[in-house]
Amino acid sequence: MKRNPACAIEYVQYLNDKGELTQPLPQWAEQPKQLLHYYREMVMARHADQKAISLQRTGKLGTYPSILGQEAINVVIGSVLNKEDVFVPYYRDHTAMVMRGMKQADVYRYWGGDERGSTNPEVGKDLPYCVPIATQVSHAAGVAAAIKIRGEQRAVLCTCGDGATSKGDFLEAINLAGVWQLPVVFLINNNQWAISVPRKIQCGAPTLAQKGIGAGIPALQVDGNDVIALHEVISEALLKARLHKGATVIEAISYRLSDHTTADDATRYRTNEELREAWQREPIKRLQHYLHQRGEWDESKEQRLQAQAADQVQQAVDEYLQTPQQSLDDLFFYHYEQLPADLAEQLSDADMANQLQGKAVQGGKHD
Amino acid sequence: MTEQNRITLVEAVNQALHFAMSKDEDVVVLGEDVAVNGGVFRATVGLRERFGIKRVMDTPLAEALIAGVSIGMATQGLKPVAEIQFLGFIYAAMEQLVSHAARMRNRTRGRLTCPLVVRVPFGGGIHAPEHHSESTEALFAHIPGLRVVIPSSPRRAYGLLLAAIENPDPVIFMEPKRIYRATKQVVPDDGQSLPLDTCFTLRQGTDITLVSWGASILETMQAAKQLAERDISAEVIDVACIKPLDIETILYSVKKTGRCVVIHEAARSFGVGAEIVSQLHEQAFFDLLGPVKRVTGYDITMPYYQMEKHYIPTTERIISAVEQSMEQA
């Protein structure tokens, strides 16, 4: 019997759960600069995330999906993409999006029920948050096709969760990326849970990465709590894409330490024991241990960073809370390039109703 | 004019695609069987040979993907013209069209737009199997952010398709395949687009306004001709741009004639006809001499082709509705 070696799925890890190296460092990680950058960004991410939950609990933010435990994936994406690459996120990518040019206040605006969270021009042609599961994956294939048609040396990175890999959109899009050799990297954030459905009843295949093989795309797994491994694997896949050598499917193994969203209660479906065990593998402590061992980190640096992060997040909160309300015009003006006559009429109805209510809507008018 | 200058509706679609692709290299065409085969109706024939495989793409057989990929392309400034082979197969793509194409501009407040055209043949009359004959334009017209355009002649197919491609918003361009080859017209290849915010008055009249679109324009015009022989002067309006709807042109006509029949092949209830009738009652009630009538498909599953002649509005049904309307006032 012959075995096809193309079907084997590699698993890449550099830093184990305890923050010990499991293989020699890649060259870029021999200098501490990038690793310290990752550590700082992850600490910042956790502060911003915890603050979002506090805002929600005090009625100042809507339903919010936490990135607790997903910090490594976020900061590596935010770092290894070039400005001219295109990021196609799902909805659990806040810090990656901030590192791409959004403000943390924009993140709060979006989850605070304000469309203007997705308007920041600093993100270029990156796509906005995508709520319907897996639908963004075919957008990513389309963005990559546009790059290929234009013969540009840019790459697309698209994220999705483990649940998304069960959907047709995911499978259809990776299928196209394989057959058209598109410059795209599909990064599955396998955080083990799709709301209450665990990975083991999401899919019968031993890995999610191997779905790439069915699409003719090289695929591998990576420790999603290990910034060094993530950096290596994603950078290489992006480089390959930019050189038009085809797509890659990466399954990053992580764990959703939070509830699905602030509207969820994960104690209904998973055990404290499992959660406690998952905390042993989380990305921030792991890198902290490693940096300590290397003599690159100490308690006073940690304290300074914590204070700095708290301060920076508070500034974002202040900015968010001071956002002026949208005008009614804003709700109507962006459905078509020009406001159609029937919508203009409905807008004046809405204005009239608003005046009748005697609640002046603040915010600028367009004219 | 010689026969060579006169082209069919589907040839006019093809001519418009050639023009748009030669004028703007951001225009790309994708779909099932559109490249090598030139489309199952030959609407895209010759494009691949002229513009190459990078701009004319056969996709895998996946409608949701075609829509999603087109959206991705459109956010980056390409102007994809995607073909969904038959309207009955577009439902897999509905989530992409409703949840993303229609929303991208509003979601980003104009940071990203979705200049995309989905061409899709629709309607009965060609002896096709199940799922190939429905008319569900109302599903798309209901969605904020989408445009819905339906040509009913070669000239309007050419001008409206050019306009749809030029337009920076997503357009569902529904092609009435029953009249793909029914008539020929001289269609100068001059790149002249038609406006997307107006109905077209095809025939002037004073006694009654007949409002229709798509393939039903054929029977509606026949009815108007037969009515003229009986000294009933019918004005015929081709709505063409279903969404956003130019109610002003219809109102103007109905205020003049005082009577109106709306004719469409789609099922009767909750549809575009209902919307037009509702707006007429809101805005022209006191000008009406009698109730506005509808001649439509029924609220049943589109029959397989043997019985579809009992479903698609006929000239006789239109004339009968006009007669009732004239009797009532």
TrEMBL record, chain B:
UniProt key word Signal: no
GO MF term set: oxidoreductase activity
Reported cofactor(s): thiamine diphosphate
Entries under SUPFAM superfamilies matching the protein: Thiamin diphosphate-binding fold (THDP-binding), TK C-terminal domain-like
Residue ranges of every copy of the Transketolase-like pyrimidine-binding domain listed in the record: 7-182
Keywords of the record: Oxidoreductase, Thiamine pyrophosphate
The organism's place on the tree of life at top rank: Bacteria
Pfam families: Transket_pyr, Transketolase_C
The keyword Oxidoreductase is annotated on this UniProt entry: yes
InterPro entries: THDP-binding, Transketo_C/PFOR_II, Transketolase-like_Pyr-bd, Transketolase_C
CDD domains tied to this protein: TPP_PYR_E1-PDHc-beta_like
PANTHER family: PYRUVATE DEHYDROGENASE E1 COMPONENT BETA SUBUNIT, PYRUVATE DEHYDROGENASE E1 COMPONENT SUBUNIT BETA
Record function comment: The branched-chain alpha-keto dehydrogenase complex catalyzes the overall conversion of alpha-keto acids to acyl-CoA and CO(2). It contains multiple copies of three enzymatic components: branched-chain alpha-keto acid decarboxylase (E1), lipoamide acyltransferase (E2) and lipoamide dehydrogenase (E3).
Protein name: 2-oxoisovalerate dehydrogenase subunit beta
Organism, scientific name: Zooshikella ganghwensis
